[in-house]
Amino acid sequence: MPLNTLYVRRAESADAAHIAAWNAAMAWETEAKRLDDDVLAKGVAAIFDEPRRGFYLVAEMDGVPVGCLMVTYEWSDWRNGDFWWIQSVYVVPAARRSGVFREMYVHVKAMAEGAGAVGIRLYVETENERAQATYVGLGMERCHYYMYEAMLD
Predict the structure, then answer these.
(1) What Pfam families does the entry give (predicted)?
(2) The pLDDT of residue 3
(3) What number of H helices and E strands is found in the chain?
């Protein structure tokens, strides 16, 4: 196998520890937020336990896991179809800027098209200009919605 070979696959429950660790790293890097390890492990496992919630993809470089993303679904009555939301994106620092996210995105896009989804969405921190440039470079457009939330106990 040539060096720097990228392979994207659907994650398996055996990947859960990597995914949880990457999610914790991403939360710290992007928001300086420490996540509760127990809650995070249960949250990752919940995707494998209930596939209706979504799925993870894992990217491997030369057979070594180097990143992941999660896809969840949002039903659009306006379009009579699902939007696929890309979330929990993480690429290990040593593999960044080597096309890992691009390969995962291409994989998700092909899967979404094959499943009849109406679109792909994601959200990004307002200050994360590097990620925003990456998404624009892949043909995504900034939409005109703001995101609001109300956390519940």
Answers:
(1) Acetyltransf_1 (PF00583)
(2) 66
(3) 4, 5
Residue-number span of the structural domain to which 105 is assigned: 6-137
In a domain, 145, yes or no: no
**Domains in the chain: how many in total?**
1
The enclosing domain of 61 has a CATH number of: 3.40.630.30
Q: State the Cα–Cα distance between residues 83 and 116, nearest whole angstrom.
A: 10
Q: Is 131 a residue whose pLDDT tops 90?
A: no
Q: What are phi and psi of 125, to 5 degrees?
A: -55, 140
Q: Does 56 fall in a domain?
A: yes
Give the model's pLDDT for residue 1. 47
Q: Flag whether 73 is in a domain.
A: yes
> Closest Cα to residue 6, out of 107, 131, 86, 85?
107
Q: What is the pLDDT of residues 67-91, one digit of tens each?
A: 999 999 999 999 999 999 999 999 9
89: nearest Cα among 27, 11, 46, 137: 27
Mean pLDDT on 123-150: 86
DSSP state of 140: -
